[in-house]
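Duplicate of earlier report; XYL2 arabinofuranosidase input re-posted below.
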Amino acid sequence: MLGHHYTHTFLETAVASLNAGCNLELSYGMRNNVFMHIPKALAMGNITLQMLRDRVRPLFYTRMRLGEFDPPSMNPYSALDLSVVQSPEHRNLSLEAAVKSFVLLKNIQGTLPLRARDLSSQHLAVVGPFADNPQVLFGDYAPVPEPQYIYTPRRGLETLGANVSFAAGCSKPRCQQYSRAEVVRVAGAADMVVVCLGTGVDVETEGRDRSDLSLPGHQLKLLQDAVQ
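Output:
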């Protein structure tokens, strides 16, 4: 609210938020937050004690239902350790979620799905700034997994036994410097070309909106070159 100039101080923000029914804050930290101004707002009479209790009650009710105040022996999550992180079960579930979330807009001449048994006899070209850069594959507010668990399009196809050639064309999603020659060379020698384009947090994120939906930089040119 302060950042959007709806209020001028954290104290005003605390009063406005509580009166509007808000009871959670994504704070800036313990030294710079809104909720620490609530006692002053209460002392000044801008909010009432009953209002404060009404805001706090659902928070603790939810935490109780989640078992946060139960003895550890009653909480099944207390028995978990770091061995569950990136466990085969979780990785398989992530793979299943990824496969089921694909959106296929058009499938000309039944090109997809690619069959693993046919890949070894084909020469694939994987091109684009998202083809083999693990750092750009995650969106805003995404976790930062261990690099060994990140499968780029290039790495994924290579694990299937495909004969893969690679050319980024441009090293970053902004694609301000584009190497057309390497894309044309790699794509021209391939039986099939996989083009990996997009935006990523370098281009758009919270607080960094875009004015259009065009591909960044020279990415459209990269796509046209790969198609030709």
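The first helix runs from residue 10 to 20.

Merging into the original ticket.
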